[in-house]
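// run 5 | inverse folding | seed 20
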């Protein structure tokens, strides 16, 4: 069983997020438990301040270290990164993180406890990354408004890798990227739609020829949309 705790100033953002599809099934089957916590619950001042102005000047606000350290320490019982229990990873979602890949997701899917810290504003006090966090993770080179959508993406990639999360008809090992190529094009009925016909070969029942067509079509699609995958 994997337990995921999300630390966020917008816990309501996640209200229905895990109630659909594979993630819902995995929760129902007891493979994962996911809880979003309000960072403000770990503030001690009467205004529940989670952010403050940046030292050195500059626009925007920075998330303060104290509530984040208090949150992680109360969830893990640990004091800082050194004493984080075995099997627990503490991830900060940040644009400065290492970029999420399928292999990082597979690594995180091995742990028993995952604590996700969602940044907001202009950033998070660097002492969080220095002393509290085991993994600083970005989901790619584009700008989000905060770490919350990145946490959704990270949880989705991890949960579908948990043993038993996918039906027996599919397996995570079959997925795109694992093979280094994009998926081949898929078609269903009708055979002709607005003048566009399904490739005849898929209707023949010749499984060897179909497999060959699919490999070629996947390579063609990969060359057009993701040539970087072919160059590795
Ligand atoms: C690098 C941009 N920063 C320059 C001043 C400002 C900034 C932009 C966006 C600071 C924080 C954010 C909020 N983004 C995230 O928290 C985030 C993120 C992202 O923006 N892109 C990809 N992955 C992630 S994970 C968390």
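// decoded
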């Amino acid at each position: 069983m994997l337990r995921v705790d999300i630390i966020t100033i917008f816990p309501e953002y996640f209200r229905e997020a895990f109630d659909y599809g594979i993630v819902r099934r995995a929760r129902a089957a007891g493979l994962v438990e996911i809880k979003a916590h309000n960072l403000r619950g770990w503030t001690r001042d009467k205004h529940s301040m989670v952010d403050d102005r940046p030292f050195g000047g500059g626009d925007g606000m920075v998330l303060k270290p104290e509530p984040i350290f208090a949150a992680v320490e109360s969830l893990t019982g640990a004091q800082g990164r050194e004493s984080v229990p075995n099997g627990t990873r503490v991830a900060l979602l940040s644009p400065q993180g290492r970029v999420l890949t399928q292999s990082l997701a597979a690594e995180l899917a091995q742990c028993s406890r995952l604590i996700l810290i969602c940044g907001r504003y202009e950033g998070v006090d660097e002492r969080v990354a220095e002393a509290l966090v085991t993994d600083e993770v970005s989901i790619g080179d584009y700008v989000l408004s905060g770490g919350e959508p990145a946490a959704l993406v990270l949880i989705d990639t991890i949960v579908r890798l948990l043993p038993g999360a996918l039906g027996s008809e599919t397996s995570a090992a079959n997925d795109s990227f694992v093979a280094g190529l994009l998926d081949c094009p898929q078609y269903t009925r009708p055979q002709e739609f607005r003048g566009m016909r399904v490739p005849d070969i898929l209707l023949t029942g010749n499984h060897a020829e179909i497999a060959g067509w699919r490999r070629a079509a996947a390579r063609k699609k990969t060359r057009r949309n993701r040539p970087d995958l072919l160059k590795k």
